[in-house]
Amino acid sequence: MLYGIGCDLCSLSHLEKSLSSAHAAAFVRRVYGPAEQAALGLLEGSAAPLNAHRLASAAADFAAKEAFLKAAGTGLREPFSLCEIEAVRQENGAPAYRFSGQTAAWVAQHRLRARLSLSHEGGMALAFCTLEEES
């Protein structure tokens, strides 16, 4: 049974400002989980430039977090933390959620399965999330 649906748009230019500001390291730690930081090349001390593909992926991952929160029907409040909601890529390249901490406990408690779809085009990234009750 469907528990919730959420979608979100993220402007690449807006996210680029956050990732290149003086507070970028704190932003990355607060928003992106370890797997995302590694996949996006956002680990502290990384000298890799933020190219267009990585920026689009980072924006899609950010939108995925917001889409999940909307599907959960709570917004960003306890027990959720953005860095505990990770958008990862499966071996076949398909996006999926990986949860940790209190977010993982909430998903398990509610017996939910999360599905994720991502896209980016024209300076925007889109994420669509469905939460389904497991039978």
List strands and helices in order, with pairings.
Blueprint: E1 2-11, H1 12-20, H2 24-31, H3 34-40, H4 52-72, E2 85-89, E3 95-99, H5 101-109, E4 112-121, E5 124-133
Antiparallel strand pairs: 1-5, 2-3, 4-5
Short description:
This protein has one domain: Ribosomal Protein L22, Chain A, CATH 3.90.470.20.
Detailed description of the structure:
The protein is of the alpha+beta class. It has a single domain (2-133), classed as 4'-phosphopantetheinyl transferase domain (Ribosomal Protein L22, Chain A), CATH 3.90.470.20. The chain contains five helices and five strands. The longest helix is centred in the middle third of the chain and has 21 residues, at 52-72. The model has no long low-confidence stretch (mean pLDDT 93).
What is the CA-CA span between the terminal residues?
8 Å
Shape summary: globular
Instruction: Tell me the helix content.
Output: 40-55%
In the CATH classification, which architecture applies? Alpha-Beta Complex
> Main beta sheet, described?
3 strands, antiparallel
CATH superfamily: 4'-phosphopantetheinyl transferase domain
- At the first level of CATH, the class is Alpha Beta
Question: Which structural category fits the helices and strands?
Answer: alpha+beta
What is the number of helical segments per DSSP (H or I, 4+ residues)?
Answer: 5
What oligomerization state is this entry in? single chain
Summarize model confidence as the mean pLDDT: 93
CATH topology: Ribosomal Protein L22, Chain A
